[in-house]
Amino acid sequence: MRKTLRMPLLLLALLSCLMMAPFLSQADESTGQSATEEPAKVNANTALPALQKRLDSLKQRVSAAKTDKQFTSLNDDSQKLVAEADKLAVALAPQLTQVQAQLDVLGPAPAPGTLTETPQVVSQRKQLNNSKTLLTTQIEQTKAIAVGAQNLSSQISGLRRDALKTQIALNTGSILGEKFWSPVFQPNDKDAARFGEFGAQVGSAWDEAWSEEWRLGTGIYLLLALGIGLFGRHALDKPMNWVLPRWLPQGRFRRSFLACFTTLSTTLTLGICMQLLCYIFTRLPDTSPWILEFADQLVELTYFSAVIAGLGIALLSNNHPSWRLPGIADPLAKTLATFPILLATFIFLFGIIEQLNALVGASIDATLFGNGLSALLVALNCLVAPLRVNRIRRKMRAEGEQTEARSTVAGLIHLVISLTAFVILLALLIGYIPLARFVTFELLWIGLVVCSLYLLIHFVVDLCEAVFSPSTHSGKILKSTLSLNDRYLSLAATLFSALGKTSLLLMAAVALLNGTFGTTTPMELLAKIADMWGGKGLEGMNIIPAHALNAVLCLVVGWYVLRSTRRWLDNDFLPKTNMDRGLRASLVTLFTNVGYVLIIMLTLSMLGIEWNKLAWIVSALSVGIGFGLQEIVKNFISGLILLTERPVKVGDLVSISGVEGDIRRINVRATEIQLGDKSTVIVPNSQLISQNVRNATMGNAQGVATITLTFPLDIDPEQVRNLLLEAYNLHESILENPAPSVSFKELGPTGIVLSVTGYVNSPRMVSSTRSDLLYEILKMLRAAGISLSQTQTMILEQPANKAVTVE
Predict the structure, then answer these.
(1) Spacing of C-alpha 464 from chain mean position
(2) How high is the pLDDT of residue 618?
(3) Among 398, 427, 453, where does a domain finish?
(4) pLDDT of residue 24
């Protein structure tokens, strides 16, 4: 019975394998191989030794590498090896799954003594088990190669940082020395031979491009590249000037859109122009590897230089001064017009020199000459521009012309650029050319990121305002479709612009920390400089200079972000909600306190301080709390209770221990109460929790104006009642609902006591309203001939005809 069941199962397994074969052989259809399992095994058997051989070769090349270019190439090869190993492992996984499925169909081998299987089934099970073992081993080997390549990439990064550290710390000689200019006056024979060989390859490629077979295409690409590079941006500006006033809504979005379009058009036209020029050579079948690599690097360098030029043209906006984003006066903008173009040109020209030096493997003298000259020209450009701006600004003041209002941030940027340029020049003069080159490109990268961030933030904010504005077409559609009022549209614009700015800030931070041109990060640079001083860090505290600088930057950036976010919540976002003023102030204060705690924790983490090693601090704090800090802690906890339970909030009128006034601020330790004379009383938070507090505005925002008067016994109470109600009803601050009322308080020998009560909108209006009512009531009583109760006078007779009056 069991044997008869095994044959149909075997046929079913073979049929399923035949049905799955076309799907498992899609990768081999292009090469004409049949959909069988054996070619895949053969490919794995040949691919694994090749991958292992590449890994061993990379390890040998790493041990001999010395330059940054070599380390960069080795790191790229390691990452490619990781990707190929992962790809092979992914390709082997379905085959292992298929073999396991076939084994599951066959079932387990029968126990000894039971019915035996046919020789075909035994052979197939053995073959499948061998395939499973082989595939499992191959997948494990592939993963091991991937892990080894990834570890090698990490080692390469560390060696690369060490090599760059040594290079930056090296004093190669001043630019005023004879050694620096030797590549110009006494060129190295090997350098001349290498550059000559590269020039010969370029000349050969140029001749081949103009051969009869490729001449037509070369001419077309050359004319197209020149046309796009020379006239492309101007050709795009004309239709854009026509589109902007007709398609975009009025407002600031037009100028930010124009600035972004100018930057993008400049970058694309110059970049596409260079791509077409390089394609003239790269499309040739016999192009040398040097020319192919140089063409790729040249395109990247062109895009980088074009972005710098485009940002300068867009931010200065000399063609459209009224649409200029930064507040720069026209004379200053015209003075700075050539500097971004010159800066981009210097970067492009000397970037080509650096790429050629790295490509042909030029000597150290030639490499240092190119690095030093590029750093010198960029530093001079960055130093001359602020000097010319200051000279033009002084000239404008002398002639009585109005200059732009400079902000603190603009002045700080101006100072940082000048100081950095001075540091670069100083490093060149004393001989630290690699350090000067590194700082130069760090300055360029940071400037590029900051300018791009400034432009994109304006674009995002203006875009959100234009989309959600009730006067624009999109705002009207949102308003009618979602039944929103103007307040919700304004709230959405504020929220989305904040999200956009936050995302841009995060991307800018990542870009800054990733460094420039694949060299290193600013943090690593300062760690290298610290190592040059010979310090290995405060190993006892696990704090090193680089970590300390990271902590300081984290503290400064965190404090700035927290202040900006708090200002945005307090002034822009929360006022557009339905929250009352007290709740808004409580949320802002609570957010600020939590933010300060997070910043402190992040700063300590950046320092490398582990929380489990702070037991001595906790012990010291416990002793301090027990003796002198308990009041501070008690007030701090009370402040948190006030912010969460909100028995009192900002704006409430409270009275505590004889002090009555408005709560202006709830701080961490104490609460500020402003009195009626505008003075401020500082009350500890613990008193607001532990003592009786009268909150006049907590349950009801209305105030009660009550006046109690004593009249003689011979008055008409009804007449006086009507007169008092008339005085209250005529006053504009007295509410109609609840209506004013007069109550008969007391009847005594001294007279009749009447109390009149009326309600006003706020308890803060009671004092002034009561004063106005007293003036009016006294005037009405005198007009009606009604007097208030007077003090009785008694005359006592004494001997010697002396009278004593007793009141």
Answers:
(1) 18
(2) 56
(3) 453
(4) 32
0.70 exceeded by pTM: no
Looking at residue 269, its pLDDT comes to 93
Whether residue 433 sits in one domain with residue 300:
yes
Q: Which residue blocks in 468-578 are alpha helix, DSSP H?
A: 473-482, 486-513, 522-532, 545-568
Residue type, 73: S
Q: Determine the Cα–Cα distance for residues 456 and 321; give it in Å rounded to an integer.
A: 19
Domain that holds residue 22: 2-169
Q: Inter-axis angle of helices 2-24 and 119-169, to 10 degrees?
A: 40
Query: CB atoms < 10 A from the CB of 463, how many?
Result: 19
Q: What residues does 746 pair with on adjacent strands?
A: 753
User: How many angstroms separate the CA atoms of 179 and 338, rounded?
Assistant: 33
Q: CATH number, domain at 780?
A: 3.30.70.100
Residue 187's Cβ-count burial label (10 Å; 0-12, 13-18, 19+) is middle
Residues 299 and 337 in one domain: yes
Classify burial at 308, counting beta carbons within 10 Å of its beta carbon; exposed 0-12, middle 13-18, buried 19 or more: buried
* Domain shared by 207 and 163, yes or no: no
Dihedral of the alpha carbons of 23, 27, 33, 35, in degrees to the nearest 10: -20
Q: Residue 319 in 3-state DSSP?
A: coil
Q: How far apart are CA 346 and CA 444, in angstroms?
A: 12
Tell me the HSE value of 76 on the side-chain side, using a 13 A CA sphere.
6
CA distances from 25 to 17, 46, 137, 374 (A): 12, 18, 22, 56
What does DSSP say about strands 659-666 and 653-656: parallel, antiparallel, or unpaired?
antiparallel
Choose the final residue of a domain: 453, 475, 493: 453
Q: Which two tokens stand for residue 698?
A: 């907590």
Whole-number Å distance between alpha carbons of 772 and 776: 6
Going by C-alpha positions, the residue among 315, 378, 383, 321 that lies closest to residue 344 is 378
Q: Are 397 and 403 in contact (CB under 8 A)?
A: yes
Residues in the chain: 807
Across the chain, which has 807 residues, the per-10-residue mean pLDDT values are: 36 36 36 38 71 86 76 81 86 85 77 68 81 85 87 80 62 80 81 85 88 88 90 85 81 88 92 91 85 89 91 88 84 87 89 82 78 87 85 80 68 84 89 84 86 91 88 84 81 84 80 53 40 38 54 77 80 73 68 78 70 54 55 69 74 80 78 81 81 74 82 84 86 85 82 86 80 87 80 47 44
Written as one string, the DSSP assignment of 445-458 is HHHHHHHHHHHHHH
Residue 600 lies in a domain: no
Please classify residue 290 by burial: count the beta carbons closer than 10 Å to its beta carbon, then call 0-12 exposed, 13-18 middle and 19+ buried: middle
Extract the tokens encoding 555: 């503290």
Q: Which amino acid is at 769?
A: T
Q: For the sheet containing 694-695, what is the strand order?
A: 680-684, 670-674, 659-666, 653-656, 694-695
Please indicate, yes or no, whether residues 282 and 150 belong to a single structural domain of this protein: no
- The tokens of 663 are what? 């709560």
81: nearest Cα among 151, 1, 131, 175: 151
Which has the closest alpha carbon to 339: 301, 300, 370, 377? 377
The answer to whether the beta carbons of residues 448 and 467 sit under 8 Å apart is no
Query: Quick one: 253 and 337 in the same domain?
Result: yes
Residue 681 to residue 670: CA distance in whole angstroms:
10
Same domain, 149 and 256: no
Q: Round to whole Å and give the CA distance between 549 and 379.
A: 25
Q: Is residue 72 part of a domain?
A: yes
Q: CA 172, 175, 177 angle in degrees (round to 5)?
A: 85
DSSP 688-703: HHHS--EETTSS---E
Report the domain count for the chain: 3
Spatial neighbors of 686 by CB under 8 A, at least 6 apart, are 631, 634, 635, 638
Beta pairing partners, 538: 543
Pairwise CA distance, residues 444 & 423, whole Å: 14
269 and 229 in contact (C-beta within 8 Å)? yes
